[in-house]
Amino acid sequence: MGVLVSNSDSFIDEVTEEVRREKLFGQLRKYGWIGVAAVVAIVGGAAWNEYRTAQERNAAQATGDALLAALEENDVAARASEIAGVEAEGSATAVTALLTAATQEEADDAPAAFATLTALAANEDIPVMYRDLAAFKAAMLPSDDATARLAALEALSQPGQPFRLLALEQMAYATLDGGDAEGAIALLRSIEEDAGVTRGLLERVQTLMVALGETPAEPPADVQTQ
Predict the structure, then answer these.
(1) Which of 95-122 are b and which e, b meaning 16 or more Cβ less than 10 Å from the residue's Cβ?
(2) Arithmetic mean of pLDDT, 196-206
(3) Does residue 153 register a pLDDT over 80?
């Protein structure tokens, strides 16, 4: 009797396993194309990513070569024109614009440099760090409109702005140029007392304070070294 039960259980197990196998094969026949499509999609996606990466790398290299060639131009005005004509995408657009503005400033064409930098600062397709840098550099350009320049620097000196302390420094210089020594000293004091001041900036600020007859505060032990 025990043998019969054992054989019966073994037979049932074999039948159950066969049913499972048939169901599996049936599912593969019915839905196997999905697996094939998934494999094709994965392989195709990897190939496309590799192609796109290669294209981006080639484009970046071409932009770099064009910029290097433009920088070899001896005539500064021609160099600015050649740099401005370099085709670039993404972050390379920002680098190209910053180089263009620097060359335009070198060529004593401050209005052109200002236009280049303000256009870059307003370009929302560019990473924000480049836009902030462009806005700061535009505010640093010499200008006959001292009021507008101070207003631009004040906007950049608000809490949370990445170039806040540097903007305050420029405001101090502009205020001093306007004949307001006390206002300049107040701005220098605010930089001196800021926890985020770097050692280099602190040294510049305190040197100017000494020149204005002020006694600088002792620098904190944990002042940043850069």
Answers:
(1) bbbbbbbbbbbebebbebbbebbbebbe
(2) 92
(3) yes
**Angle, in degrees to the nearest 10, between helices 76-84 and 2-71:** 150
Q: Which residues contact 66 (CB under 8 A, 6 or more apart)?
A: 86, 87
- Give strand pairing partners of 198: 224
Whole-structure pTM value: 0.62
**Tokens, residue 47:** 């190939």
Nearest-angstrom CA–CA distance, 43 and 201: 53
At 143, is the pLDDT very low, low, confident or very high (cuts 50, 70, 90)?
Answer: confident
| Spatial separation of the C-alpha atoms in residues 73 and 119, rounded to whole Å | 25
The packing angle between helices 91-106 and 76-84, to 10°, is 160
Q: Tell me how crowded residue 191 is: count the other CB atoms within 10 A of its CB.
A: 25
Tell whether the model's pLDDT for residue 161 goes beyond 80: yes
pLDDT at 12 over 60: no
Q: In the 8-state DSSP scheme, what is residue 125? A: T
- Residue 224 DSSP symbol: B
Instruction: Residue count of the chain, please give it.
Output: 226
